[in-house]
Amino acid sequence: MSGQIPATDFSVADMLRPEVIANPYPYYERLRGQTPQFGLLDYPPGTVPGVDSPSPAWVFTRYEDVAGVLKDHDTFSSRDPMQEASAAPTLMLVNHDRPRHTVLRNIARMAFTPKRVESDIAPLVTQTLNSMIDGLLNREVDFMKEVAGILPSVVMTFLIGTPREDYTKLVRWANAFMVSSDFTPEERTQSNVELFQYYVAKVGERYAAIERGEAVPDNLMSAFIKAEHEGYHLTREEVVLFCITLVVAGAETTTYLLGNLVATLQEEPELFQQLKQDRTLIRPFIEESLRRDGPPQRLFRVATRDCEHGGVQVKAGEWVAFFMAAANRDPSVFPDPDKFILKRPNIGRHVTFGHGIHHCLGSGVARMEATKMLEVLLDRCSEILPGSTEKRRQTGGLLTYGLQTLPLILKS
């Protein structure tokens, strides 16, 4: 829940305070009632606080303003000059504009088939979850550490085609890259180097196997290497960057999604019983969680021209930060926005996964993982009880909203 609106003055300069990161929603509420402010100094994924220098950005929190940025790809560019100037690997699709974006997305679609998600990965997710739950029933566990923090990275190793035991590395690399956990500048920089070098090596091994005429597994890495669109193939570096993008964009945000879902079931046990009795409610439950508690908080764009947006004058070259999470709780679009309402009539309007050409390519995988997790919990558990200590939300960065710890008891 959002809590009460802070009584003190609040500006975008205060948005990186730990208490705001832990629960930003009352602050979004205050900002929505004001003229958009300029001056947020925050970091895009991969950049390193204390090393890279952020550019001040306009902050947009109203649904209409956020949707306007998402839809106007010509005025608001996805290219990230700050990330490009840093030592961080550039993210594919996320940081590209048309026409290059169109080519890359078409190739990605060829690799990211529905079969790969539903037929190849879904059974693995169910099997992995059941194996996890076997050892967790009827004792206090930290769900973030023992389930939510593991499953998405295991899925990514399978999806991309790297050794399963490397999932622990993926967890650390994604946390450091997404600027949402506590790392020193040196640790973040070293993590980015390790992440890049790891996939350079793995992709190089796959190319060498293909060149030797060996049969290679049908996973995303092989699919990215072989995919072709109108005569264009990805370069070796682009294959590396696609792998990195999937890991950093998918592992951590899905971890927080899974945690937020289970936290709601623990906080509102009547919802757990409703879902247990009617599995058709699983999808509406996930969508309402994506709206109210969706992990992705904001993205950056850069204005390509002088324009008026949200009642302010934005100059060419200025940064804009648009907060999907704030838009998702705009009461002018979603009445009673802090309440969790199953079967909310207009739930399809939430913007957690973006919109249009930049709609998240991995949204199907995230929804599938969430669905399978809920199915297993509903099958294996009679109730979800709170643990002996309070859950804690992460305070490392404003990019994502999620739990650091979630103590609970899964009753059989």
UniProtKB/TrEMBL annotation:
Gene3D superfamilies: Cytochrome P450 (1.10.630.10). Keywords: Heme, Iron, Metal-binding, Monooxygenase, Oxidoreductase. The keyword Oxidoreductase applies. The keyword Metal-binding applies. It comes from the Bacteria. GO terms for molecular function: cholest-4-en-3-one 26-monooxygenase activity; heme binding; iron ion binding; steroid hydroxylase activity. One of its GO terms (biological process) is cholesterol catabolic process. It holds the Pfam family p450. PROSITE patterns: CYTOCHROME_P450. Belongs to the cytochrome P450 family. This is Cytochrome P450. It comes from Sinimarinibacterium flocculans.
